[in-house]
């Protein structure tokens, strides 16, 4: 006889694995049981193509889902918000970015650009290539020229909180991924995210003060490069009424602004969730301790020997130099660990 208890039952949600990501539909009612068979998440072939490489990254961010997606839809901010990290234009600001919006509806939109394309597949997927057309990316088994794609999944977490999952699959330089660990790529990728975290956090509060229905009054979007921003904001207004449908009722009140080191911290927002970065952190911590122990052990050896084993001045100098080098290396490694896995400030004025 099977005994059932409501205290020991959990809800069962429809779920599916696609592109190595677990998707689930957060409704447990019977009428939603086959929802992922009726409409599967967007499939991106390059993520499963063995001729492409590019693992995933994840970061929790201190601003909301709509601000995150708006930022991803804004190509013009890259050389300025990420100054010193990515593309550089001349002092006059470069030139226009021409794009055309197609197929704008409840399912998202597609943006055709001079040298590439991007697609927003509602509600959270944004992907494309800045250098190739969609037709070229859809050639299937045909031999493709060197290309790279940008894939972003933007997940609402809470008012003023979101999660970004990213991947940059490419079919060139594949050998590099056999040598360079994933955590090394994440150093640069996290620095890019750090460079505009504070600005976007403040931007969200400016939007809230003006009211999301009046978002255009809080900013100025006159150029062709703003086309995707306007398309996303129009989609968010028309189909979502400028808000995320949270499961529990919320006043949509933004959390208070924390200190800058809390806004830009990396350990809880990324490292703890990343197997590569957490393993690297563990190994470097062990190496730091080993270097400190070695420096103390060398000095202790020199003190105990008292000239019996280390007779010449040159030998003693070499032993002292080894101790100093071990200690200096441990201090450098401690600073590297702090900046890579915990917090590193980014000041635009210094770039």
UniProtKB/TrEMBL annotation:
InterPro entries per UniProt: Cholesterol_7-desaturase (IPR050584), PaO (IPR013626)
TM ranges: 289-309, 315-334
Protein name: Pheophorbide a oxygenase domain-containing protein
PANTHER family: CHOLESTEROL 7-DESATURASE NVD (PTHR21266:SF32), IRON-SULFUR DOMAIN CONTAINING PROTEIN (PTHR21266)
GO CC list: cytoplasm; membrane
UniProt keyword annotations, A-Z: Membrane, Oxidoreductase, Transit peptide, Transmembrane, Transmembrane helix
Domain Pheophorbide a oxygenase: 120-211
Superkingdom classification of source: Eukaryota
Location in or out of the cell: Membrane
Main location: membrane
């Amino acid at each position: 006889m099977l005994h059932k208890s409501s205290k020991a039952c959990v809800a069962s949600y429809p779920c599916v694995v696609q592109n190595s990501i677990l998707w689930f539909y957060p409704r447990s009612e019977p009428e939603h049981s086959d929802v992922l068979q009726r409409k599967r998440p967007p499939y991106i072939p390059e993520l499963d193509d063995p001729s492409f490489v590019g693992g995933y990254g994840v970061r929790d961010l201190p601003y909301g889902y709509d601000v995150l997606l708006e930022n991803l839809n804004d190509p013009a901010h890259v050389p300025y918000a990420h100054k010193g990290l990515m593309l550089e234009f001349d002092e006059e600001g470069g030139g226009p970015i021409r794009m055309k919006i197609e197929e704008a509806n409840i399912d998202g939109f597609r943006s055709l650009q001079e040298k590439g394309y991007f697609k927003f597949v509602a509600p959270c997927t944004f992907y494309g290539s800045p250098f190739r057309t969609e037709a070229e990316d859809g050639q299937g088994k045909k031999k493709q020229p060197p290309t790279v794609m940008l894939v972003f999944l933007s997940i609402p977490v809470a008012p003023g909180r979101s999660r970004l999952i990213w991947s940059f699959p490419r079919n060139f330089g594949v050998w590099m991924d056999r040598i360079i660990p994933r955590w090394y790529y994440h150093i640069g990728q996290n620095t890019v995210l750090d460079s505009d975290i504070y600005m976007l956090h403040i931007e969200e509060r400016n939007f809230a003060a003006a009211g999301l229905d009046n978002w255009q009054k809080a900013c100025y979007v006159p150029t062709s490069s703003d086309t995707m921003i306007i398309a996303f904001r129009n989609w968010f207004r028309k189909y979502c009424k400028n808000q995320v449908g949270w499961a529990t009722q919320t006043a949509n009140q933004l959390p208070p602004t924390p200190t800058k080191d809390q806004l830009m911290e990396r350990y809880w927002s990324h490292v703890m969730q990343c197997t590569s970065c957490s393993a690297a952190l563990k190994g470097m911590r062990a190496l730091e301790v080993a270097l400190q122990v070695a420096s103390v052990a060398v000095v202790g050896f020199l003190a105990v020997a008292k000239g019996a084993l280390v007779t010449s001045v040159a030998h003693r100098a070499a032993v002292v130099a080894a101790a100093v080098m071990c200690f200096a290396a441990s201090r450098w490694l401690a600073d590297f660990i702090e900046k890579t896995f915990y917090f590193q400030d980014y000041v635009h004025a210094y770039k």
